[in-house]
User: Which sequence fits this backbone?
């Protein structure tokens, strides 16, 4: 589960919001009263995972959220017996969303209650404009969900796993070759009492470390793609071009690993000591000529 430390709804999900009035909770969603209910029984339903709007929901999460909304709606009808019920889900500040954690409002309604009008009178577009808008939206309608079968998804996951395995194998090869090269260069430096040989070994280790961190970066990206496909998110069928998760990486056009890749347990503890040994050896040989 992914949460945001600054999100008030994530605090409710985590159980760290002392003022929260929680109506319902399970391993997927939480239903609770807002701090300032619009009407008696006004309830919010949110997914556990922090997603800003409806675009971030997986199909499984959307199913769970819809099921919870239906359950809470039935509870409100039975519990406070309203004359009507608004179910409202807003996305973005322009749509009056004030907390960037997707949520669904269930607002019980009575005649002459304190809620105002929601919809303006009249149509926003004339008939011709509506026809053009319809065509525009139909062209943008995603088709991936309707065309991907369970067998397609399994095959897609198999392809992604093959790439992940290849990245892992390449990483192991980088470590093996770096040990061979540093053994040769460091051994030559000691045998010939040549500090330059040790520095060449340091340079080789740095290059292999950079390659290995790049393999790790790509492996993480494909693991994220694997998770998306496994969750049932809308992904281009058989896509093998994942977007790397870090905005820092995107700014640098994905050419270089991120700092988190270099400091990973698979990189820093392996190449860091080898670099220090080489630098120490070069320093020792330089000053003991």
Assistant:
């Amino acid at each position: 589960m992914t949460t945001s430390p600054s999100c008030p709804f994530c605090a409710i999900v985590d159980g760290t919001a002392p003022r929260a009035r929680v109506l319902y909770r399970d391993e997927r969603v939480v239903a609770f009263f807002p701090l300032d209910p619009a009407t008696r029984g006004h309830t919010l339903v949110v997914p556990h995972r922090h997603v800003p709007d409806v675009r971030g929901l997986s199909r499984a999460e959307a199913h769970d959220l819809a099921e919870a909304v239906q359950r809470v709606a039935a509870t409100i009808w039975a519990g406070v017996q309203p004359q009507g019920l608004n179910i409202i889900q807003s996305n973005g500040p322009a749509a009056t969303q004030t907390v960037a954690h997707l949520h669904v409002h269930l607002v019980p309604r009575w005649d002459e209650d304190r809620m105002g009008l929601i919809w303006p009178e009249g149509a926003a577009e004339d008939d011709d404009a509506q026809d053009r808008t319809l065509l525009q939206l139909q062209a943008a309608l995603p088709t991936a969900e309707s065309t991907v079968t369970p067998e397609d998804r399994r095959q897609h996951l198999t392809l992604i796993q093959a790439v992940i395995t290849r990245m892992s194998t390449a990483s192991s090869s980088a470590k093996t070759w770096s040990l061979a090269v540093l053994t040769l260069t460091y051994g030559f430096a000691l045998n010939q009492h040549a500090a330059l040989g040790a520095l060449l070994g340091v340079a080789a280790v740095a290059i292999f470390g950079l390659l290995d961190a790049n393999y790790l970066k790509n492996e993480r990206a494909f693991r994220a793609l694997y998770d998306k496909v496994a969750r049932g998110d809308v992904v281009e069928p058989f896509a093998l071009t994942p977007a790397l998760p870090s905005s820092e990486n995107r700014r640098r056009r994905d050419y270089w690993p991120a700092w988190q890749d270099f400091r990973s347990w698979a990189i820093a503890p392996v190449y860091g000591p080898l670099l220090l040994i080489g630098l120490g050896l070069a320093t020792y040989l330089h000053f003991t000529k």
About this structure: The chain has nine helices and five strands.
